[in-house]
Amino acid sequence: MLAKSFIAAAFAGMAAAQNTGVEVIPVLVGMSPNGTAGTFFSPESITAPVGSMVQFQFMGGNHTVTQAAFSNPCQPLSSTNASAVGFHSDFVPAANNAQTGKVPSYTIQIKDTRPIWAYCAQGRHCQSGMVMVINENTAATPENSLANFKAAAASVEQATVPGPNGGAATGNGGGQTGGNGGNAGNADANTPAAGANLRVPAYLLAAVAGAAALF
C-alpha cells in the first residue's frame, strides 16, 4: 500500500512537471518497476535528450545516486578526474518520509548526450548491481556497455562516497552524509560536463517547481 502511495505521489509530480514544458525523465531509486523494494535503479538505462531533466525518485531504503567514470565503477568521478566533480545526492533515507506520502528526489539537467554512469554508494549496493547509465552509446564504443560496467562493479572491493571538499570517504551512510557535487562531469575523465546538478535532495513536488524556475 505504501509503495502504491509513493508511486501515486511520483506520478502527480511528473504531471506537474510536464505542464511546464520541460521533459522530466523519472528513475526510481530503491524500487523495481513492479514495486518491490531493493537495490535497484528503475530503469537502469535511459535515453535523455539535451535540455531534459532526469529525476531520481527515492522510493525505499537508504541510497545515493553518485556519478562515476565507466573505467572506475563504484568510485566518484572526482577520483578518476580531480577537475570533474560529478553529481552526488548524499544518502537519502526514503523511509523517513513514508508517513507523509512525499517522495524525496534529486534532479540533474542533461547538457549533452555523452554517457553518464552512476551507482549507489551505500554498502555493497554497487557491487550487487545497483548501477545505471544515461545515454549509453555502444554503437560508438561497444565495450562501454551497462553489462560490462556492472560486471566490473561486482569485483570492486569497496564503494566510495564523495567526501567534503571533493574528497572521498568509505563506509555506510546512515543519513544525509557525504559531500554534495557541483557541476556534473562526464562518464570518463578529461571530457566536458554532460549533466548539471539542479537541486540537492528535496521532496518531489518542491523539486519540480524549483527546477522549472531555473529555466
TrEMBL record:
Keywords linked to the UniProt accession: Signal
Signal peptide: 1-17
InterPro entries per UniProt: Cupredoxin, Ser-rich/MCO-related
CDD domains in UniProt: Cupredoxin
Keyword Signal: yes
Compositionally biased tracts (Gly residues): 164-184
The organism's place on the tree of life at top rank: Eukaryota
Region annotation Disordered: where it falls in the sequence: 160-186
Protein name: Extracellular serine-rich protein
Taxon lineage: Eukaryota, Fungi, Dikarya, Ascomycota, Pezizomycotina
